[in-house]
Amino acid sequence: MNRPGYSLTAQLGALFAIVAVIVFSAVGFYLYRALAVQLQERDEAELVERVLQVRHLLAETPDAGSIQREPHRFLDAVDVSHGFFLVIQTPGGQVLAQNTAERGFTFPGGAVAADATPSTRDTRHTVAADGGALQELTAMGRVGSSGDVVRISVARTAHERQEVLRAYRLKVWIAAIAGAMLTAATGYLLAHRGLARVRALAAQAQEVTAHNLDKRLDADAAPAELRLLADSFNRVLDRLQNSFNKLSQFADDLAHDLRTPLNNLMVQTEVVFSQPRDIEEYQNLLSSNHEEFGRLARMVESMLFLARADHDQVALSTERLSAAEELGTVAEYFEGLASDAGVSLKIEASGEVWADAHLLRRAVSNLVANAVRYTPPGCAIVLAAAGSGAGTAISVTNSGPGIDPLHLPRVFDRYYRSDQSRSSQSSSAGLGLAIVKSIVALHGGHASVTSELNGTTRFALFFPGPAM
Ligand SMILES: Nc1ncnc2c1ncn2[C@@H]1O[C@H](COP(=O)(O)OP(=O)(O)OP(=O)(O)O)[C@@H](O)[C@H]1O
Ligand SMILES: [Mg+2]
């Protein structure tokens, strides 16, 4: 019944019709059977009554000969017009009175004794001479005080009963068909009405486009069964809107961030080209351009990395690593830069960390690069690692200007830089911490930050241990 493409309303209408036909037919059949049984019982009771009536008349009759002389007294007692047949015979088979001369019928089996009272159970089925079905009762009867015994046979055609039943059967069929059609039509209309709210929801959903992603379905007005669907749809829209906004923001930022270095390249190249230069000036231009290209390449690489991480396309080769060794490698790499900035790097690490070596170094490097930039000369940057049962926490702590608590929740966002001076010549793209967050997330861990203005800033990365 749930084949695709079939109208739910039509299916419900058809179901209603089938159920109605079954119910009406079952009820009709039951009533028909009950009526048939009742009519049969009525016929049997009437046969018994007629036999008793004839016996009563016989009691008032002097002898068997009187029956033959006045048959109408008896024949009138059974109402021929209602299809009753009567035959009174001597035990020898001589007919004394009968109203069935032209039709006749057979008498199967014996007769109820003259002293016994006949009951409906003594009635039998038989056939008339013309083949019609009959219900028949035969009993002996005593004639007055003469001591004569006669045989009374009363029968009734089933014709009238069958007529009643046939008419009834027809009515049942008509009622079943009419009822089914009526129920199907009502079912269809009700389903159509009930589904109006589904159509309303669909119309609301159709209004949602890329330009009005803030539109939501009216879940409260939806029927209870559809509220879940409407809520889920709204949540999908929430997520879509969120992603869509991020994507738009990403495209804006991307355009903005690429425009500045590209403009720089254009402008400085045009300036150099504006008049003839000597070799050294061209060399300077190329080297400056080379630096700018390097920045662009790094930026594009970072974006690509984030895009791949978003789509789980970064292959992880996790292994057990010595935390102190890994932090040492990063510190060694930053030694030159740190000493230029007049800051020192300290390692306080023990234990192991379960991570991809390359990505772990990349994450810690991004933190150390930031720290070196913001730590005032003479201060130290601490690279620490501490293991617990669940995993290892790696942190990079430095003192410096700190991050405004207002900005703190957003530092891990892409392109987020607390100075916000996008047009600045600074080489930062605001992707470093976003990459850190992605790397930790790829490992199933999480990154956090605490910072005080003009105090200590601490970034902590938690790497979970190997899954059991
Ligand atoms: N140790 C720190 N002390 C103070 N501010 C910090 C520190 N680390 C990060 N920040 C702030 O967080 C911002 C985001 O850092 P993030 O590393 O994501 O970007 P970036 O360093 O500006 O650029 P990129 O790392 O892509 O070159 C920084 O611009 C800076 O304002
Ligand atoms: Mg950075």
Q: Work out the radius of gyration.
A: 53 Å
Small-molecule components bound: adenosine-5'-triphosphate, magnesium ion
Please count the helical segments.
10
| CATH topology (fold) name of the largest domain | Beta-Lactamase
The major sheet is characterized as: 5 strands, antiparallel
The SS-based structural class is alpha+beta
Q: What is the first-to-last residue Cα distance?
A: 47 Å
Tally the structural domains.
3
Strand content: 15-25%
Give the helix proportion (percent range). 40-55%
* Spatial order of the strands forming the largest sheet: 2-1-5-4-3
The low-pLDDT segments are none
- Overall, the morphology is rod-shaped
Return the CATH class of the largest domain. Answer: Alpha Beta
Global mean pLDDT: 87
| Counted beta strands | 12
CATH architecture of the largest domain: 2-Layer Sandwich
Order of secondary-structure elements: HHHEEEEEHHHHEHEEHEEHEE
